[in-house]
Amino acid sequence: MFREFKEFAMKGNVVDMAVGIIIGAAFGAIVKSLVSDIIMPPAGLLLGNVDFANLFFVLKEGAAAGPYASLADAQKAGAVTINYGLFVNTVISFVIVGFSVFLLVRSINRLRRQEEAPQAEPTTKDCPFCLSVIPIKAVRCAHCTSELKG
Questions:
Q1: In the 3-class helix/strand/coil scheme, how is 65-127 assigned residue by residue?
Q2: pLDDT in tens, 26-72
Q3: What confidence tens digit (pLDDT) does each residue in 70-102 have?
Q4: Helix (H/G/I), strand (E/B), else coil: 38
Q5: Which of 4, 30, 32, 128 lies deepest, with the highest CB count within 10 Å?
Q6: What's the pLDDT score for residue 12?
Q7: All residues at 6 or more sequence positions from 131 whose CB lies less than 8 Å from its CB, including other chains
Q8: Domain ranges of the chain
Q9: Which residue, among 101, 99, 59, has the nearest Cα to 83 in the 3D structure?
C-alpha cells in the first residue's frame, strides 16, 4: 500500500499540481495585499475617505450597544454583521486573479496553436541544373530552360 501511494505521489501530474497549488496560494496572498493595501485605500479616498474593510451592516447588536466605529469593535461586542466591504475586497481580488489566469491560459493556448500549426507546403524548388529558385509546379526552368523531371 505504501509503495502504491509513493507511485501515485511521484507521478508528474501530482507533483505539478502540488507546485501549482503552492504558487497559487502565494499569488492569492499577493493579490489580497494588492487589493487591500494598494487599490482600496485610493478608491476609498476618492469615495470620501471610505475604508472598505469597515463597511458593514449590523443585523443584531452585541453585548455593548452600537453604533460601532469599526468592524473590529462590532465583532468584539459580539454583534452579528454583514461585512459587505470585505465582500467587495474579495470580489475585486477574484476579478484580478481570474483575469491573471485568463491571460496565462490565453498565452499557453497561443503557444500550443503555434506548435500544432502544420508547416506550410513549399511553393518553390531549386532547379537541379542552374540552382535558380522556380515554382514547385514548373516542368521547365525559366532561367536555363532545362526540362525538369516531375
A1: CCCCCCHHHHHHHCCEEECHHHHHHHHHHHHHHHHHHHHHHHHHHHHHHHHHCCCCCCCEEEC
A2: 988 898 888 888 888 888 888 888 778 888 999 998 888 878 888 88
A3: 888 888 999 999 999 889 888 888 888 888 888
A4: helix
A5: 32
A6: 65
A7: none
A8: 121-150
A9: 59
Question: Global pTM?
Answer: 0.58
Q: One-letter amino acid identity for 116?
A: E
Q: Longest Cα pair distance anywhere in the chain, in angstroms?
A: 103
Which amino acid makes up residue 2?
A: F
How far apart (Å, rounded) are the C-alpha atoms in residues 41 and 57?
20
Which residue from 95, 60, 92, 93 is spatially nearest to 79, judged by alpha carbons? 60
